[in-house]
Amino acid sequence: MYLSDKPEDGISILQMNSELQHAQAELLSAHCATYKLRLHFSTEHLARYGRRDILRKSIETASALNEYFSSIEKHIPAEEPVSALAAGLTDKQILQAVERVSSYLREQRDQYLPSAAPLSQQHQARMSPSFSAGLLDRVKVVELHGQRVSNPPFYAEAKALGFVNFPELAHMSSLTFLDVLVFNEGITERSLFHALVHAVQFQVLGLERYTELFVRSFVNTRYHFLVPLEAHAFFLESKFVRPTAERFSVEEQVRLWAEQNRY
Hints:
By secondary structure, the protein is mainly alpha-helical. The chain is 61% helix and 5% strand.
């Protein structure tokens, strides 16, 4: 597939980044599963008692993935240097950023709400094993046609402070503005599940707490997919799409992470 920076290639770039996000979610899931192995079993025990065929396939897969992503890493353009200000924002600056992001989320919610529609009965039925009936009744969805969500105005100010790794909103499958879910492309079960996870996070944490956790984590990690709120959404999404997906409550998972201060 041919990709370029031309506007008419936006759909191709959108598809590429969507598939990249899905791959990252699967890798995160594999990382968590491997971490459990490391907690319970030593490398010596795994090498001695683990099934040889599974070990060899796992090692081959990990090696191939490392080789592939290492080859990509060599072509990633050098990042712009992080300014001294970005390296250590004051608490006042962070709180101001939290307020800006919170206001943006409210404004976007109000902007899209008039054109939003309830979830279809089919989507509600598919999502009901993991989400409460109250949430599924309350959320509204918008499918954009011929347009995409644009970047917020505060991006330019933040970039001037040295933060350069903001996600391009037009390249994201979905955006969650509290209880309004906006899709840059047609709704899929996977993108809907991911958007609903964020809706649950807003419900459990509240807008201000959610925003503060997100902003502080982004300041520390500098990548939105490394922010625990986002990483958890991708992790739960990967569990949802497994061929033999287990039934689980997203709200219970979110409350557990909140109680354990994992966000």
